[in-house]
Amino acid sequence: MMPVDEALERIFAKLPDLGSEVVPLGRAHRRVLGKPLLATHSQPPFDASAMDGYAVRAAEVVPGRPLKLAGTSQAGARFVGMMEHGQCVRIFTGAPLPIGADAVIMQEEASAAGNQISFQKAPRAGQSIRKQGFDFLRGAELLPAGVALTPAMLSLAASANQPNLTVTRRPKVAILATGDELVAPGGTLGPDQIVASNSFGLIAMVSPYAEKVIDLGIVPDDKARLEQVLLSAFDMGVDMLITSGGASVGDRDYVQQVLRDLGVTLDFWKLRMRPGKPLMFGTRGKTLVFGLPGNPVSAMVTATVILKPALRAMTGHTDPLWPRIGVPTLLGLPPAGPRRHFMRGILSRNEIGYLEVTPIFETDSSHSSSLALADALIIQPEDDPGSPPGEIVEVIPLAWG
Fold first, then answer.
1. What homologous superfamily is domain 28-42+136-168 in, according to CATH?
2. Which option is the CATH number for 48-130: 1.20.210.10, 3.20.20.140, 2.170.190.11, 2.120.10.30?
């Protein structure tokens, strides 16, 4: 059996380069920046007021001695000309600073008598002014390549006058489930059948990282039919093919054999992890092929631990394994065996607001209700002796991206 870390390294080494594309800002949310974001101008492009008030020469302000109001500067309509000595200009937040002014006094510290404006105290030069380029300078790198674009980042890109962004391309993914025992949700169950669930969870997990997800449905344990469906996926030019079920080597587990017959080079098919030992990985040309276990918990855990990092790396994320955090466990953990254990857990906040995790001790790989209740996976290393209550453990939050 292959260690999890080695499996990830092998997968990362075989990831194809999908290239990049240019998209408008409105379609760039959560996409990964393909090249650095550069500022096309300085922001602000001029010295601007940081508040509503009066623009003055700091050296000319004497408390109680009025200055003459010369005009107004507001956003989009600056004061034209130079502010003369003995004058001040009414100014509003974001408006250009008049020529000759070097400070702004907030309106609450001013008194007006017609066009005579008096001030409570003298300002310092530069007070309440946002200098040209205070936020960023023309040509500055504002964001590096490899970041997933957040709303704040998109706002920054717009401020930098970039209507389009270069982002990494996302893969086309095909997913299918195998097994005579499977019936689609809403169907009539035979005496020996169960409802198929894996594809619904897998599609939801991979969709944020995929350009297109193709649901190939349920394929029975029939070699000819399985070969037909798998070949159609390859003919579509998918970048990643994901199967669930049939990944073992039983008499009715045909996936591995059919994949080999179709030219897939298998890299490994057993991992030293729990749940999820029977996981296959291989390639056919530039297509990555993953064969996940059929048990629902095993399928979702292996997808979280293996598929999601592969997709993040494939789409240019600089930290494929994110998110992983350390939190104390509320209950003690039992010793782990020779396989890395990804134990279900529930995150909560203690009385002072810090995160902690409560382990779920159900370990059956078909017990999907306990996984649905969990919002984290606790990572127990191979041969871990166990942990007492309060010890810091590494967890994968399941709802963080």
1. Molybdopterin biosynthesis moea protein, domain 2 (3.90.105.10)
2. 2.170.190.11
Instruction: Please write the tens of the pLDDT for every residue from 132-171.
Output: 999 999 999 999 999 999 999 999 999 999 999 999 999 9
160 and 136 Cβ atoms separated by less than 8 Å: yes
| C-alpha–C-alpha distance, residues 328 and 354, integer Å | 9
- What confidence tens digit (pLDDT) does each residue in 239-255 have? 999 999 976 665 567 89
CB proximity list for 322: less than 8 A, separation 6 or greater: 312, 401
Interatomic CA distance for residues 94 and 69, integer angstroms: 19
Own/partner pairs, 226-234, CB within 8 angstroms, 24+ separation: 226/178, 226/254, 226/255, 226/258, 227/258, 227/261, 227/262, 229/176, 230/176, 230/258, 230/259, 230/262, 231/262, 233/174, 233/176, 234/262, 234/284, 234/287
Place of tokens 């890395």: 340
Mean pLDDT of 334-357: 96
Task: Quote the CA–CA distance of 243 and 199 in Å, as a whole number.
Answer: 9
CB 61 within 8 A of CB 105: yes
> How far apart, in Å, do the first and last CA atoms of the chain sit?
29
Cis peptide before 296 (omega within 30 of 0): no
Q: Is 201 helix (H, G, I), strand (E, B) or coil?
A: helix
* pTM of the full structure: 0.91
